[in-house]
């Protein structure tokens, strides 16, 4: 017979949203288990350990409402160290993969994971969406050792010639970090950077351009790669140039197929259809964090505060 463990809530994903959900559930007496396919805070630890995180920036002006240990202006590495201590106070299973969510005969759910089966009333999906970066799909891009899709903040390059492709915050931040000790060219497909780019990033980019640290080209695309030689269309001109590193930041795949496999309805953009309480089309299954469209740690964690509060009122 299957070994099924009883809980009120299973939380999938131990990033900021998932950790906050676990802390809130513990505080109100819900029996909750937190699972993650890696370790708590893995994405931030792996790629942004040296980056400082701010409570308020750009359009994100929320103050933290919950229990997640999040002092302002600490680096990702410092924050993750604190969060992993907090994860240790919860019923927490790292290195655990969600396999399937099944309806149970009693109106609850059976959550099948690589570490066991959990019989629960509620589920919070806080897995994030930053695991499958979009590619340009151009010749020479695939398996190119010079191409990267994220900046490793623990190993910032020095004295390199760098090309960055993209117009959003990820592209801006890679450009700004790289420009400290490198020669950087930034290609933006449209005639301006994305409207979501923060004022801080816009201001710092303008300063670097004026100081000659960054060359910015709008209405420009990367068309072909031959090793580290890039063929670029800059306006009407086509030119070739060699780079030591080529960063491509054009977004991430929407988790549409995965959500559909879980029986969750989507909206036209491929994101989950959610109620005001962030409940999906499957009653009792909620979504918090980047998977809901949130773009900040504070907002993601605050979403989980609201979800757990809503659960206590049911």
Report the helical percentage. 10-25%
Low-confidence region ranges: none
Instruction: Walk across the major sheet and give the strand order.
Output: 6-3-2-10-19
Rg value: 21 Å
Beta-strand residue percentage: 25-35%
Would you write up a description of this structure?
By secondary structure, the chain is an alpha/beta fold. The chain contains seven helices and 19 strands. The protein has helices at residues 16-28, 42-47, 76-87, 169-178, 199-210, 256-261, 297-312; strands spanning 4-6, 9-12, 32-35, 52-53, 74-75, 92-93, 98-103, 109-113, 116-120, 122-125, 147-148, 161-165, 183-187, 214-217, 220-226, 229-234, 237-242, 245-248, 285-287. The strands form five sheets. A five-stranded parallel beta sheet has the order 6-3-2-10-19, covered by helices on one side. A hairpin with a 2-residue loop joins strand 16 and strand 17 (237-242). Helix 1 runs parallel beside helix 7 and helix 4 (169-178) packs across helix 5 (199-210). The longest helix is centred in the last third of the chain and has 16 residues, at 297-312. It is elongated and about 65 Å long. The two termini are 32 Å apart. The model has no long low-confidence stretch (mean pLDDT 93).
Briefly, what is this?
The chain is of the alpha/beta class. The chain has seven helices and 19 strands.
């Amino acid at each position: 017979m299957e070994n099924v463990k009883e809980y009120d809530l299973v939380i999938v994903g131990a990033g900021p949203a998932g950790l906050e959900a676990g802390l809130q559930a513990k505080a109100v007496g819900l029996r909750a288990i937190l699972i993650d396919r890696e370790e708590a805070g893995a994405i931030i630890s792996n790629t942004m350990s040296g980056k400082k995180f701010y409570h308020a920036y750009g359009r994100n002006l929320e103050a933290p409402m919950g229990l997640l240990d999040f002092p302002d202006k600490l680096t990702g590495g410092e924050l993750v160290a604190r969060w992993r201590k907090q994860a240790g106070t919860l019923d927490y299973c790292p290195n655990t993969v969600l396999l399937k969510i099944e309806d149970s005969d009693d109106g609850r759910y059976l959550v099948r994971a690589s570490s066991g089966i959990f019989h629960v009333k509620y589920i919070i999906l806080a897995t994030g969406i930053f695991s499958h970066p979009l590619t340009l799909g151009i010749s020479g891009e695939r398996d190119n050792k010079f191409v990267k899709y994220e900046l490793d903040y623990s190993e910032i390059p020095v004295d390199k010639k760098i090309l960055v492709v993209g117009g959003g915050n990820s592209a801006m931040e890679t450009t700004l970090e790289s420009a400290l000790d490198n020669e950087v060219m930034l290609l933006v497909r449209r005639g301006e950077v994305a409207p979501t780019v923060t004022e801080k990033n816009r201001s710092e980019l303008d300063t670097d351009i004026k100081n000659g640290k960054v060359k910015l080209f709008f209405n420009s695309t990367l068309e072909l790669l031959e090793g580290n030689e890039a063929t670029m269309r800059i306006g009407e001109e086509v030119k070739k140039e060699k780079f030591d590193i080529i960063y491509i930041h054009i977004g991430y795949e929407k988790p549409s197929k995965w959500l559909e496999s879980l029986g969750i309805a989507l909206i036209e953009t491929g994101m989950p259809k959610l109620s005001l309480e962030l409940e999906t089309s499957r009653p009792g299954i909620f979504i918090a964090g980047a998977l809901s469209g949130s773009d900040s740690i504070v907002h993601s964690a605050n979403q989980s505060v609201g979800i757990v509060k809503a659960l206590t009122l049911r």
